[in-house]
Input
Amino acid sequence: MRNLLSIEDLTRDDIERICERAASFAAVGKREIKKVPTLRGRTIVTLFYESSTRTSASFELAAKRLSADVISIKAQGSSVDKGESLKDTVATLTAYDPEAIVIRSPAAGAAKLVAGWTDAAIINAGDGKHEHPSQALLDVYTLLDRLGSLDGKKIWVVGDIAHSRVARSCVRAFSLMGAEVTVAGPPTLIPRGFGEAFGCEVAYDLDQVGSADVIYALRMQRERMAESFVPTMREYAAGYQIGPRRLGSRQLLMHPGPVNRGIELAPEVIDGPASLITAQVRNGLLVRMAVLYEILAGSDRPRPVRSVGGRLESVESEGAPTIGEPA
Ligand code: CP
Output
């Protein structure tokens, strides 16, 4: 795997391989020294043009746990504030010879664009309303860890589908893993043709949500709403909030975070026994370690070369990276 831009680029085998790798990092996380030397001497840049807590923190920690050198840039406070373009910013950071750039941008397609401007591998940490593939991978991992398999499982993705990159990545990933996916929400928040485009069912109310094995609630993305999509948040909550009344005892609850408490989720279910929200955050670290491993140290990665006396020679001939002993 050269880049991680979209779940569309992955197969079920790819997802299973990444999840297996993440599981191996879970064992490393139980050691006293949680760092391994896999990416020692390699540089990873995280470049965030939008707010983030989970994705930015977990990618940074994942890179550090793999012993990479990390440069973390937030647009706010960087030369982006002085008007530097995305292309110039990428060219500047590429001069430090990073092996990977993890990028979050408000613009759909930004990660793919950046992949054409640099030799560094690109990991899409969320691009506008398009995709958030590492979120979907950590969600699949969390469900596999809990359920063993997604084959035939009914997963309802509820809420603001229209503005959600998480919905697009998760629907694709859950379907690839064999789940039967339904998206549900107000008609104003489900794009026309979404069901056909993504191969899922569509519901405009929660009357049948009791049939779901998993309810995946989405954040109302008010920052992406230029107009009013629901009459009021109170009315939205009345129709679509997941609370104790709508959550059955055998159902699991997920949310990518951050949660608008009292809007898409009632406070009691956030911290209740059905909630996988904290597990999702914890697993985000393991899965992002696995993504970095897959891209930078996986067996099908083109080996970096250097010129020695006019000949090109594999740098990795000095020793292929392994999970190995503590760093
Ligand atoms: N789920 C998610 O992407 O969270 P952050 O915005 O905090 O990274």
Remarks:
- The longest helix spans residues 277-297.
- The pocket of phosphoric acid mono(formamide)ester is lined by residues 52-55, 126, 132, 135, 256-258 (CB under 6 Å).
- The chain has two domains: 7-131+281-318, 133-280.
- The domain at 7-131+281-318 is CATH 3.40.50.1370 (Rossmann fold).
